[in-house]
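Entry type: protein chain
Record version: 2
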Amino acid sequence: MTPKLAAQLLRLTSAGTVLFGLMLMLAPHSPLKPAGLVFVDLAFLPLDRTQDMDHEVAQLMMAISGGLLCGLGVLVW
């Protein structure tokens, strides 16, 4: 793998990380709610699909984790 290709792949994955972080931040307030529910279900075990994103704790968790992922993606870029 050439260094140029490695840099391009790293930028691509960091852009994906930023987009995923934005999706997590916006999921409680947008049509992305079903995708966010999968993350909430993974965070609050067991995997039983009974969690809801209308709870303040879940919304705070989504905002914090999404912000951290966006920051990580920008740092890697």
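Comment: Residues 4 and 10 are 10 Å apart (CA to CA).
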